[in-house]
Structures are given as structure tokens and as C-alpha cells.
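Deviation from plan, reported transparently: Thiamine Triphosphate complex.
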Amino acid sequence: MSVEVERKFLCSADTLKTLEEIGAVCVGQRQFLDQYFDTPKFDLTLKDMWLRNRKGCWELKCPTPVDRTEETSGEQSKAAALCTRYKEITNLPEIQTRVREVVKDVCERRETSSSQEDEESWLSKINLVCFAAFTTVRRSFTLEEEGVQIDLDQADFGYHVGEIEVLVPEGGDVQSALEKIERTARKLGELKRVEGKMNVYLKRNHPEHYAKLLSEHVL
Ligand SMILES: Cc1ncc(C[n+]2csc(CCOP(=O)(O)OP(=O)(O)OP(=O)(O)O)c2C)c(N)n1
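Because the crystal trials were delayed, the predicted structure below was used instead.
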């Protein structure tokens, strides 16, 4: 399990040039479809848990506690507030356990005892349905001196966003990741906070749920 520390930024016409100027190296372009799942009542996302299938692989992003002692100055805490950090779980049995913990009432009603379950059966037993699906074209860059990855994403619903990202192994140094991201953002001349793809997707496709996530301070 690792923790993804990430800061999103607005891509402009100059972003590619700036990336080149600061020495970022393009490491490729790929395209993927993300399908996000939740119960019809959105039990997972209301707990800030994001279950998705990307290219046949399951991933669950869960909140991870923020250790405020990591931040020793006001500047550091401002920089940290611009970043998100989520635990990334990719092991399917562990994902299933975590998801069941949240939606256990639903599970108890629907589940039958079966040790071998295929993909559709675990989803339908826990009453999970796809609430968002979109394709992203992603160009990825690395900035070796900082050890960060920079992704430029173009979603098929007409939204562009950049991300500066560091994957921290569990128990690793989150503060150092925040500092690397902050330095990279400064090099990019990028200090503003922007919305992620999911925020924009939900606003357009599930406005009531989006409003609820805002009012519950999930987004
Ligand atoms: C700015 C911001 N972004 C996401 C969230 C929560 N959230 C909403 S959807 C969501 C899941 C998707 O996360 P994100 O990193 O935005 O997607 P993507 O860049 O495609 O995944 P990657 O390839 O990096 O793994 C999260 C964590 C938040 N609270 N604030």
C-alpha cells in the first residue's frame, strides 16, 4: 500500500514549454477508461472512498490521516493544503474487505456464502453500480531532480488538468513529498488550486450528489 500525494494545477498553452524549460522529461502518453463504483446511495464517496476499475485493475483510494506535526511553518501548512493525500489500495481482497466495512448493512441483506466470487458477483452482492465513466489521455513527465511525476490529463468530457504527484511507500516521508511538490509547483509558476476531473464530472452528471459532497466537506 502506498500514499499518493498530489497537487492539481491548471494547464495552459505554456505548460509544455515550461515543463521543457525546467528539465522535465516526457515518459510517455497513454489512454485509459476509468469506471467508478459506489452504492446507489453513494455510501463510499460520502466517506471519501473512491473505488475504480482502470484497465481491468481495481483501485481504492481512501483518506489517510494528516499528521499536523509534519508541518512546522505556516508556509508548509499552506503548501500542504493545496495537496491531497490518499492511501491507494490495489489488492482486490483488501479492497473488498474495506468496501464491505462501509456498506456492511447492504452486504448482510444481499450476500450469500460463496468463497469464490467473480467480478460481477462481488459488485452486485455489495450493490455497487458504476456512477462515472470517462476516458483520459495522459502525458506523463518526470522531474528527476525532485523525484516527482507530472501528468497532463485530458478527459473526454472536455476538461484538462495537470497533476504533480509523488507516491510515498506506507510509513514513508510525506513531508518530503509535500516539499518536492511545492518546489515543482514554484518552478512551474503554479500556485493556484484547481478542480479534479471527478469534481467536474460530478458537477455535470450528478449535481445533487456533488452538492452533498461539498456540504459534507468531502470535496
Ligand atoms: C483536488 C481533489 N481531487 C480529488 C479529491 C477526491 N477524489 C475525488 S475523485 C478521486 C479519485 C480520483 O483521484 P484523482 O487522483 O483525481 O484521479 P486520477 O488523477 O485520474 O488518478 P491517478 O491516476 O492520479 O491515480 C479522489 C481521490 C479531492 N478531495 N480533491
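The two ends are 23 Å apart (CA to CA). We consider this an acceptable substitute for the interim report.
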